[in-house]
Amino acid sequence: MAVVAVLAAAIAALPLLYLVIQASSRGLGNVIEEVWQRRTLDLTLRSLALALTVTALSLVVGVCSAFFVVRTNLPGYRFFAVVLVLPLAMPSYVAAYAWISWIPSLAGFWGAVLVLTSISFPFVFLPVAASLRRIDARQEDVARSLGLTSSQVTFRLTLRQVRPAATAGALMVGLYALSDFGAVATMRFESFTWVIFGAYRAGFNPTRAAILSLVLV
Question: What is the pTM of this model?
Answer without folding.
Answer: 0.83
